[in-house]
Amino acid sequence: MTDSSTRDFYDSLAPDYHRIFADWDASIAHQAGALGALLGPGPHRVLDCSCGIGTQAIGLALAGHQVVGSDLSPVAATRAAAEAAARGARLPTAAADMRRLPFVSSVFDVVVCADNSMAHLLTAPDVAAALADMRRVLRDGGLLLLPLRDYDEIRRTRPGAAPPQVSESSDGRVITFQLWHWHEDGERYHQEYFQLRPGGGDDWAVRVRRTTSWALTRAQLTEFVAAAGFVDLRWHDPVSSGFYQPVLTARAAG
After folding, report:
1. Total Cβ atoms within 10 A of residue 196
2. Are both 198 and 91 inside the same structural domain?
3. What's the pLDDT at 240?
């Protein structure tokens, strides 16, 4: 993980991130409902350690959980707190690297790391460090939720692009798509993230942002999570969970 390039990517994307959703508030509510079902009866003390602009954290806070958000991007973390306040929720946030979380040990019941954030950790030591710190801040028996893009088939076919997304915003239609350039190892890929918005007249305004990801398979992530001191590992597919990506849940061993 190259801290500065990943942070720059999300600092740049933060003002526009909501535009990838047809209805961001509806997505906030839906994702919180799906994740909340995996959390079980609460309220819980929740850390969203890759909170972005708050898509999962805001919904969980509105559902009554005590949520703290952190993110590598200070721009995204600041926006998440502001968006939560605008919706009547309390969401304290911090700019923080998930490999070095600024929280005391055993303070949370749940840690969430969503929106494919684990994929930005590009080496095994990086992944291990992040999971070790997630385990540290969880109480014994606490729950880890790790949604991740379904990379098993993607690794087999190595597509050159992700399907485009089209959404409507207050200033017109927005088209988002990604081009993927695979590294020689067949596991990591450089990502060009395009966002097209209506410009003047018949023109489109195009914004391109770039980052790199590691296409971790389920087997790889499962092995990393088990090695970090978690037990009761379970994968939940979108059909059963209602969440838009597969979710790995695990419990912090006592």
Report:
1. 17
2. no
3. 95
| Residues 205 and 119 reside in one and the same domain | no
Of 99, 101, 129, 147, the C-alpha closest to 3 is: 99
- Are the CB atoms for 230 and 144 separated by under 8 Å? yes
- The CATH number for 202's domain is 3.10.450
Q: Are residues 66 and 114 in the same domain?
A: yes
Q: How confident is the model at residue 170 (pLDDT cuts 50, 70, 90)?
A: low
How far is 29 from 59, CA to CA, in rounded Å? 5
How many angstroms separate the CA atoms of 3 and 175, rounded? Answer: 27
Instruction: Give yes or no: residues 83 and 160 share one domain.
Output: no
pLDDT score of 3? 64
Look up residue 143 and give its two tokens. Answer: 């729950």
Residue 254: the pLDDT is: 84
Task: Give the pLDDT band (50/70/90) at residue 203.
Answer: confident
Q: Which two tokens stand for residue 171?
A: 């200033």
- pLDDT tens-digit readout, 8-47: 999 999 998 998 888 899 999 999 999 999 999 989 999 9
Nearest to 84 by CA among 107, 115, 52: 52
Please state, in angstroms and rounded to a whole number, the distance separating the CA atoms of residues 80 and 70: 9
Which residues lie closer than 8 Å to 133 by C-beta, 6 or more apart? 98, 99, 100, 101
Residue 26 in tokens = 């509806």
pLDDT of residue 114 exceeding 60, the answer is: yes
Check whether residue 97 and residue 220 sit in a common domain.
yes
- Count each helix (H run) and each strand (E run) in the chain, helices first: 8, 11
Domain extent, residue 81, equals: 3-151+216-252
The CATH number given to whatever domain includes residue 54 is 3.40.50.150
Residue 118 parent element (H or E): none
pTM above 0.90, yes or no: yes
